[in-house]
Structures are given as structure tokens and as C-alpha cells.
Amino acid sequence: MKKLVIASNNPGKLAEFQALLAPLGIEVVTQAQLGIKEAEEPHNTFIENALAKARYVSRESGLPTLADDSGICVDALNGAPGVFSARYSGLPPSDERNNKALLEAMKTHTNRRAHYYCVLVLLQKAGDAQPLIAEGEWHGEIAREPRGTGGFGYDPLFWLPALGKMSAELSREEKDAISHRGKAMRVMLEKLKVV
Predict the structure, then answer these.
(1) Residue 36: CB partners within 8 Å, gap ≥ 6?
(2) What pLDDT score does 11 carry?
(3) Chain segment 15-61, per-residue pLDDT in tens
(4) 139 closest CA partner among 121, 120, 112
(5) Three-class secondary structure of residue 120 per DSSP
(6) Mean pLDDT along residues 172-180
(7) Which residues, in sequence order, are CB contacts of 117 under 8 Å at separation 6+?
(8) Catalytic residue among 69, 95, 128, 155
């Protein structure tokens, strides 16, 4: 595979994917560079949304496509925001509003456990009957106030007790080494080696 389309317009995700795929020598292009609009995410599971995005972008581009669906799942909120993480506070998506909404929802909860979840789907073509699928989880807690300027999404609220830091306080390299997306990408890279 020489060229791969990333089925996302999220600049934070794109930067992470480009860094993780760089060692393979695969040319990475975004759906926006090809003039492909955002795919619908109508499903209630991460895997179905990732597959829908990958099929749509692969069909529109005619190229192998990598899609992800990911989000933060909070124990005290029965797994919410989950698949609705990007639009938790409504549309258009806003990290700042989403973080405020999550803090408000967590105001009365003492159980702060949460995890990020990521599923990646890679299709060689839109009708690929054997998509490559990889998953990753990253466990931590929801802090009581934001801290840090790195990352995106809920990173300013995602506390990592073992490190004594927020996700938003990690360097890109530190985050890629331990994050849900980094874990899923390493599984995907292993699968790509045997294809």
C-alpha cells in the first residue's frame, strides 16, 4: 500500500495518524484534501461508525482508507459520552463546550474512573469483506478542572494517576506511546505486516 486516506477532518487525530504512519513510508492524505465531505455517524457503536466512515470515504476516493471512531467513556455516566463524545454538547462540535458539559455532568459524582476507547478500521477498497480492525483503551480519571494545553478533546480533563499528569500535559510522543489511539495503531501496524 503506497497511499492511504484518513477518514477524518479532526486536526488532532490527523496529526497523530501521520506521526504513527510515517515510519511505514505510506503517503497519507486526508478526505478534505480529496474534497470528500464528512461521513454520517448514525450508529450506537464505535465499530459500526468506524466501518461506515471507512466504506464511505473508500467508495468516494477509490483508495485504501483508515477510519477511527473513538471517545471517552465515563463509569459514573454509564459509559457516556461514548460514541457521542465529539458532539456531547451539541453541534457544531466544540472541545471547550464538551469539557464544560462533562464537568457539569460529573459535579456530584465521586467515582471519577473513565477510559478512552478507539477502534480503527482499514479497508483496501469500499467493498472489502475482510476489514482490518484494531482496538485500544486508555484508562484514567476525570479531573475536577482542566489543566494543560496539549492534545485535544477531553485531554485537559483526563487525569493519569500513575503519571501525576493530565493527558493534555503529555508530549505528542508520550501520548502516542500510551494512548488508546497509539495502542490501536500498533495493533493495526502488526496486522498490516502480515497482509
Answers:
(1) 5, 57, 60, 61
(2) 79
(3) 878 887 878 888 888 999 999 998 888 899 999 999 999 999 999 99
(4) 112
(5) strand
(6) 92
(7) 46, 70, 71, 72, 73, 135, 136, 137, 180
(8) 69
The pLDDT of 117-142, averaged and rounded, is 97
Mapping DSSP to helix (H, G, I), strand (E, B) and coil, where does residue 47 land? Answer: helix
Compute the distance between CA of residue 104 and CA of residue 101 in angstroms, rounded to an integer.
5
Q: Any catalytic annotation for residue 69?
A: yes
Map grid coordinates 497482509 to a residue: 195
Torsion of CA 154, 159, 165, 169, to 10 degrees: 0
Locate the domains of the chain by residue range: 3-193
Evaluate whether 189 touches 133 at the Cβ level (below 8 Å).
Answer: no
Q: Which of 140, 50, 166, 146 is nearest to 98 (CA)?
A: 146
Q: Which CATH class is domain 3-193?
A: alpha beta
The pLDDT tens digits for 115-125 are: 999 999 999 99
Nearest alpha carbon to residue 131 among 62, 188, 46, 71: 188
CA distances from 66 to 100, 134, 184 (A): 31, 11, 12
Grid cell 454538547 in the structure block, residue: 89
Compute CA distances 33 → 9, 95, 134, 169, whole Å. 9, 23, 25, 30
